[in-house]
UniProtKB/TrEMBL annotation:
It comes from marine sediment metagenome. Coiled coil: none annotated. GO terms for molecular function: ATP binding. Residues 9-118 form the IstB-like ATP-binding domain. Gene3D superfamilies: P-loop containing nucleotide triphosphate hydrolases. SUPFAM superfamilies: P-loop containing nucleoside triphosphate hydrolases (SSF52540). This is IstB-like ATP-binding domain-containing protein.
Length: 118
């Protein structure tokens, strides 16, 4: 990779392209990709990497306790009705409908834990 090419990728802020373009170029030659197919693959890698970094940045900024997830929650403590409602919430359709989730219960019953996990 030439210095000029590296500088170009740096100034355009394309770090994922810098990391993967050579490997993908070799793969493209071996599989006889068109230029468009190669470019599409390189740009898709950049897009995926940016999405991953954005999610990580948002999670850090949210300051949500990442240890509060569904794997660390004991669902057997929940009444059957609440467990059924939780299953519906986990589908995520309330997000598509832009609905709020309200949680009521005694202190220490796991409300915050479940809402963090959602």
């Amino acid at each position: 990779m030439t210095v000029e090419f590296q500088e170009c990728l740096k100034s355009l802020r394309l770090p994922a392209v810098k990391d993967c373009f050579q490997k993908l170029a070799d793969q493209a030659r071996a599989q006889r990709y068109t230029y468009e197919q190669y470019l599409a693959e390189v740009l898709e890698r950049e897009r995926e990497e940016r999405r991953r970094h954005r999610i990580e940045r948002y999670l850090r900024a949210s300051k949500l306790p990442l240890e509060k997830n569904l794997d660390s929650f004991d669902r057997s403590r929940l009444p059957a009705k609440v467990d059924a409602q939780l299953s519906l919430l986990l589908e995520g359709s309330f997000v598509d409908r832009a609905e709020n989730v309200l949680a009521f219960g005694n202190p220490g019953s796991g409300k915050s834990h479940l809402l963090y996990a959602l």
